[in-house]
Amino acid sequence: MTTTYDYSRSQQLFQRAVKVIPCGVPGHMSPGVNVPAADYPIFTEKAKGATFYDLDGNRFIDYMCAYGPMVLGYNNPLVDNAATEQLKSADLTMGASPKMVELAELLVEMVPVADWAFFAKNGGDVTNYATMIARTATNRKKIVMIQGGYHGVAPWMQPPGHHGLIEEDYSHIIRVPWNDVDAFQQAVDQYPGEIAGFIATPYHVATFYDNELPEAGYWPGIEMICRKNGIVLILDDIRHGFRLDMGGSCEYFGFKPDLICFCKALANGFPISALVGRESLKLDAAKIFYTGSYWNQAVPMAAAIACLTELKRLDAPAVMLENGKKLFTAMQTMAAGYGYDLKVTGAWSMPNIRIANDDTNMLHQQWCAECTKRGVFLASHHNLFMSLAHDEEVISQTLEIVDEAFNALDGGQA
Amino acid sequence: MNHEQIKALLNMNAVMKNLEELVLLDSQVAEQVKELDFAIEFSTLFGPKCSVEFKAGQCRVRPGKHHRPRIRLLCFSPAHFNRVMEGKSNPVPVKGIKFLKFLSTEFPKITDRLEFYLKPDNARLADPDYLRINTRFTLNTAVNAVKLLALHDTLGKFNRAHIPNGTVEFRVLPEGPSAVLSFDGDTVEVLDQPCARPSAVLLFKDEQTANDLLNGNSDAFAALATGDVMMKGRIPMIEAINLILDRIPLYLS
To answer: Chain A residue closest to B245 (CA)?
Structure first.
């Protein structure tokens, strides 16, 4: 029986952190997003493969993969060597790196929709850029997005009512429900000739809710409306990219967007994002001045080349889909043995899981916490991520710990 | 509803609502009201109304007209009423002239005590009894204000639209005050009784933690990380309520 973890060193450092950093640890890595937060680690000491160790020396099999970037395993030697070698020659200088051209060529070759590529740092950099291109190309103002969709943290991307926003930030944003082609058509009818772009993830991954795959006819319907009305179709593949298909998740679901945004799994944790697009939008992309101090770093580009090449060689999406299916169906069977209904939604390579016996989610939260404090890091309200490092041995270790966590449940009520 | 109308609503039904507990928790006020048996109606032109009814040592603050008030106080606008609440103006008694002495001497003593408990400073908060009452009143004000803002404030309504039906319990440990907000369709209610199976729970480790957070003196994310504040259940309900809570200072400072 595994003993549960102690986080006292993490907590001690957190006390220092809150004195000098808003929230202590801000953003999506904040321990405040975990439930209950005190059952989760805060600071990482080291990582390797599918695991990381926190400041207290606790080992975790990581099913969040740093919210997705880790796809080959932490400290993957192939990617790290490519980055290190590039660092020895040049990273950020007054000249662009040849690696940028190599990486763009690789993406254009790999992604059927792509005729060009542009690089930045974070997902939000390129989702924002994509909407600017759509507005430039169409000379229109409005962007349609999905209710509960997440495309980053720029003001227009955030829901009204959140701090730091003003009304004008979202005055040209129209939100429609997921899987509702008619709602998009109604928006188009309501604002004829005013909608520049439609942006959505390949399937719906709203935090706190079950994931929703596209219904048959959804993407063809959206694509048809976009084509008919001159609306730029933007695929936000930041989270899903390279976990469903190396050509972009649109290939998995069978549609052709105009622009695709990539980030997370692009470089196994090195900071880089990419926007790829059709030839017809290349001139519009070129007109927009859009840059950042570190967007030309060569090291992440070298890492991305190594990462994508390896993912392609290993047929990574297929492996992660298969291993995810093995793991999560085994978990479902195990849960059923304890009388729990473990609901799995989304793709097997990045599924959302939830114990569905309790509509308050308290039972699920307790189970995720029991798993985490025994060494399997599960976020309770976000989709999980598989990586190539989650192999049979790791899956076997995971199931042992998950079994103990089911045993530890007491019903989860307040 | 405009800003002054919403502010008047909050002053009546979130701030003055604390009179109900004040008469039970403050011995001086309890002594003052134990013999009272009448209702005061506050009305504003083009704005909300409420009544404060004293009976058998208890007090009830209710929205709307009173069926038979002994005293009726009129404000010419919601803004006028809000200035009255800030001590910068007076209402016009239009009924109950014989109660003028009560209105000029006794009632202000009660409202002064309410103000005392609702306006903390470090010295006052050092007193555990004061901390306890201030925490209770601040929590009461907060949940009642959330209810009103969810129904009337533009962004409050937007956030309310994202709150699924269910109940959210706020509880101060180990045996501090608690409050329950219930959401059901277009209805938002503050429940009088604890809920057996809330949809979401926000727990405060102790009164000091609750007081710091409710008065805006601590960081909620940091408090969650340390376990001083714990949440569980349907987190989107708490997140949306938190956004509504953050709108209260726009009306009540």
So the answer is: A161
Per-residue DSSP letter, A337: H
Bridge partners (DSSP) listed for residue A51: A48, A61
Token digits for B139? Answer: 């929590």
Which candidate from B222, B234, B236 shows the least CB-CB separation from A18? B222
A37 CB within 8 Å of a chain B CB: yes
Same CATH fold assignment for domains B3-118 and B145-250? yes
CATH fit for domain B145-250, picks 3.30.450.40, 3.30.1050.10, 3.30.70.330, 3.40.50.300 = 3.30.1050.10
Do B144 and B14 form a contact (C-beta atoms < 8 A)?
A: yes
A31 touches chain B (CB under 8 A): yes
In a structure prediction context, what are the per-residue pLDDT tens digits for chain A, which is 414 residues long? 668 999 999 999 999 999 999 999 999 998 888 999 999 999 999 999 999 999 999 999 999 999 999 999 999 999 999 999 999 999 999 999 999 999 999 999 999 999 999 999 999 999 999 999 999 999 999 999 999 999 999 999 998 888 999 999 999 999 999 999 999 999 999 999 999 999 999 999 999 999 999 999 999 999 999 999 999 999 999 999 999 999 999 999 999 999 999 999 999 999 999 999 999 999 999 999 999 999 999 999 999 999 999 999 999 999 999 999 999 999 999 999 999 999 999 999 999 999 999 999 999 999 999 999 999 999 999 999 999 999 999 999 999 999 999 999 974 433
Interface pTM, i.e. ipTM: 0.86
Best interface-test mutation with A: which of B231, B232, B235 has the largest number of A CBs within 10 A?
A: B232
CB contact under 8 A, B159 and A161: yes
Q: Which chain A residue has its CA at the smallest distance from B153's CA?
A: A161
- Across the interface, do B226 and A14 touch by the CB < 8 Å criterion? yes
Question: Is B233's Cβ below 8 Å from some Cβ in A?
Answer: yes
Domain range B3-118, CATH class: alpha beta
Q: Is A177 on the interface with B (CB under 8 A)?
A: no
Q: Which domains does chain A have, with CATH numbers?
A: 8-63+316-408 (3.90.1150.10), 77-313 (3.40.640.10)
**Rounded Cα–Cα distance for residues A193 and B127 (Å):** 64
